[in-house]
Amino acid sequence: QLQLVETGGGLVQPGGSLRISCAASGGNLGYYTVGWFRQAPGKEREGISCIVFNVGATYYTDLVKGRFTISRDNAKNTVYLQMNNLKPEDTAVYSCWASTSLGTNYWGQGTQVAVSS
After folding, report:
1. CA separation for the pair 46, 48 (Å, rounded)
2. What pLDDT, in 10s, does the model give residues 56-106?
3. What is the 3-state secondary structure (H, E, C) of the chain?
């Protein structure tokens, strides 16, 4: 069974940068569509970005387009989210997600990102 573990969250000042990682075990991430969701306090979980399996196309919500970059390192079985020009409204728990072509979904436990001065 695929397991996902996020690392790299923390506190950063507005305008700063942070890279969070999602390491997989129990499966090869190269065979999954992978992405990131986030959930802020009192709000619903929202999709941020994803990389489509076997195509490599990337997608971003308008809220982060131009500031965040998703990437994957198949050799390390890890997906990353580089976040630049962070804003206080980016504060949330960020969770890694992987999905098979049959629609089976896997989630990490999440990592907290806080943007504050």
Report:
1. 6
2. 788 999 999 999 999 999 899 999 999 999 999 999 999 999 999 888 999
3. CCEEEEECCEEECCCCCEEEEEEEECCCHHHCEEEEEEECCCCCCEEEEEECCCCCCEEECCCCCCCEEEEEECCCCEEEEEECCCCHHHCEEEEEEEECCCCCEEECCCEEEEECC
CA distance 83 to 17: 5
d(CA 39, CA 35): 14
Question: Counting beta carbons within 10 angstroms of the beta carbon of residue 111, is it exposed (0 to 12), middle (13 to 18) or buried (19 or more)?
Answer: buried
Distance CA 26, CA 61 (A): 29
Name, in order, each residue with C-beta under 8 angstroms of 37's C-beta and a sequence gap of 6 or more: 45, 46, 47, 48, 94, 95, 97
